[in-house]
Write a structure and sequence with these properties.
The complex is a heterodimer of chains A (161) and B (340). With 161 residues, chain A is α+β, with helices and mostly antiparallel strands. Chain A has 5 helices and 5 strands; from the N terminus they run E-E-H-E-E-E-H-H-H-H. In chain A, a hairpin with a 2-residue loop joins strand 3 (52-55) and strand 4 (58-61). The radius of gyration of chain A is 16 Å and the shape is elongated. Chain A starts with a strand and ends in an 8-residue tail after the last helix. In chain B, strands 11, 12, 13, 14, 15 and 16 form a 6-stranded antiparallel β-sheet that branches. Chain B has a 5-stranded antiparallel β-sheet with strand order 4-5-10-8-9, with helices on one face. A 3-stranded parallel β-sheet of chain B has the order 1-3-2, covered by helices on one side. Chain B is an alpha+beta fold. Chain B contains 12 helices and 16 strands. The chains are: A alpha+beta (161), B alpha+beta (340). The interface between A and B is medium-sized, with 30 and 33 residues.
Chain lengths: 161, 340
């Protein structure tokens, strides 16, 4: 119970066998064991949302999740968002609307917004703001991010979902 | 920031979880982890072992039981706020659940975890490096309280949102331990001490929150609260209802500086606060002044200054006590006003 263990994590449809200690977070397992570095380490304390990933359909903070809890669950990271090599409608909308500058927060925002649109394909602006509130961005001022998600929600951008 | 080392146990049943908690030295239960794991990263809590409650089926689900609504301790705050039945009956609770931390915390965090969260202080909830310039504070294992500037005391403050709502809803909590299960009023869960704020035994697990049907709002429709720094909304019918209002530094993601819950049914009014003392508490002085009186704007205005009476507000947060006292009166006025 205290030692390292080989975990099988299903990430973006692929099984990864990773050696983890009990105190290895999902974020550490993804970045340092599976080498999926698209998920970002920001505050590492659950306050910034940069590490957001989708587990069994729910957007969660990878920095506050233990890798040991993630076996037999379906993990989706930013690397699994693009569709056949093309950007997802949401990713394309981020590009089209200038919703990213340095890009560090973008994977987290995309994952949060992907969860939102899967649960509610046509959210109001207030709902988009509420659901993205746990993701911090120091560049854009958020307006363009909300506009990008809104565009996809209204079907005015990025093609069909 | 790495987590400290610990042993990890993943029981598949409640009985197994209780056994592990009683037999493994230094074991602590963990569910969503959004409070405990942050404190562990800060090295202010370093349990030798964690017992995960995430695979314990007995903690799931919302159900009716003998004139009460029973919410499993493992039900997430996201599930609480999206439950149509809870929204209609207990709007204060669903409003409180919808303003805890960020949406991600609400997705991960459980109702029991929110109630059982540790108390907080600006000298305690900091990184090891930040804290290293001072002597270890009393709660973190030292002798000295930097807030009160003396030894052997701790005034860490309780900042959970849902506790205030559940206090005005007269909720009880159900706990399972090595000696069986027990149920008691929520207020008794809190010891009133900053350093050890809970009365639970080390091997006890909170299995459910029980809300009496008598606290339900009749036919009231709850609206979702989410705007700027004061997040809440009305949830009352003419006959009564309940509401939770919170003021935080950041509207998007933060603990309450002060949170206020008000429940009303006819001439009966209950008021509770969080973020102001070592435990969440009912505003007894204020409630006595309101007892048997119909709520009117004049009554609310007259009683509002009594909101902070009997509360020990210290500088465990950066805001001065006078500001918090004013906030208590202001949030009560606004919350009670929304139930008129």
């Amino acid at each position: 119970m205290g030692g390292r263990r080989i975990l099988t994590l299903n990430v973006n449809g692929d099984d990864y066998e990773v050696v983890c200690a009990p105190n290895t977070t999902l974020l550490e397992a993804l970045r340092e064991k599976a080498f999926l570095t698209g998920t970002k380490r920001g505050c590492d304390l659950g306050a910034c949302g940069a590490c957001t990933v989708i587990v069994d359909g729910q957007a969660i903070l990878a920095c506050l999740s233990l890798a040991a809890d993630m076996e037999e669950r379906t993990i989706r990271t930013i690397e699994g968002i693009s569709e056949g090599g093309d950007l997802s409608p949401l990713q394309q909308a981020f590009v089209d609307h200038g919703a990213l500058q340095c890009g560090f927060c973008s994977p987290g925002f995309i994952m949060s917004a992907t969860e939102l649109l899967a649960e509610n394909p046509h959210p109001e602006r207030a709902e988009i703001q509420r659901r993205l509130a746990g993701n911090l961005c120091r560049c854009t001022g958020y307006v363009k991010i909300v506009e990008a998600v809104e565009a996809v929600a209204q079907g005015t951008d990025g093609g069909s979902r | 920031m790495r987590l400290p080392r610990f042993e990890y146990y993943q029981p598949g049943s409640l009985a197994e979880a209780v056994t592990m908690l009683s037999e493994v030295p230094g074991a602590r239960p963990v569910a969503g982890g959004t409070d405990l794991l942050v404190n562990m990263k800060h090295r202010v809590e370093q349990p030798a072992a964690l017992v995960s409650l995430s695979r314990v089926p007995e903690l799931a689900g919302v159900r009716s039981e003998d004139g009460a609504t029973v919410i499993g301790g493992g039900v997430t705050l996201k599930q609480v706020q999206n439950d149509e039945g809870l929204k209609a009956k207990f709007p204060a609770l669903t409003q409180a659940a919808s303003v805890v931390g960020s949406y991600r915390h609400q997705t991960m965090g459980t109702l029991a975890g929110n109630l059982l969260q540790n108390t907080r202080c600006r000298f305690f909830n900091q990184s090891m490096e930040w804290r290293s310039v001072r002597a270890l504070c009393y709660k973190a294992g030292g002798d000295y309280c930097h807030v009160m500037k003396k030894e052997g005391v701790c005034f860490c403050t309780y900042h959970g949102d849902t506790a205030a709502a559940l206090l005005v809803l007269d909720a009880e909590v159900r706990v399972e331990g090595p000696d069986g299960s027990r149920q008691f009023p929520l207020a008794q869960l809190y010891s009133g001490e900053g350093k050890a704020p809970l009365t639970l035994g080390t091997a006890e697990v909170m299995t459910a929150v029980v809300i009496p049907e008598a606290s339900a709002t009749d036919g009231a429709s709850a609206t979702d609260g989410a705007s700027a720094t004061d997040r809440a909304a009305g949830g009352g019918s003419p006959a009564g209802g309940s509401v939770y209002l919170k003021h935080a530094l950041r509207g998007a993601i933060d603990f309450p500086i002060v949170g206020a819950a008000v429940w009303r049914n006819g001439d009966a009014t209950r008021v509770a606060f969080t973020g102001v003392d070592r435990s969440p508490l009912r505003a007894t002085v204020l409630e006595e002044a309101l007892a048997g009186r119909a709520l009117t704007p004049a009554v609310i205005e007259e009683a509002a200054p009594l909101a902070p009476k009997g509360v020990t507000i210290t500088r465990s947060t950066v805001q001065p006590g006078s500001f918090k006292r004013d906030l208590m009166s202001a949030l009560f006025t606004r919350a009670a006003g929304s139930l008129l």
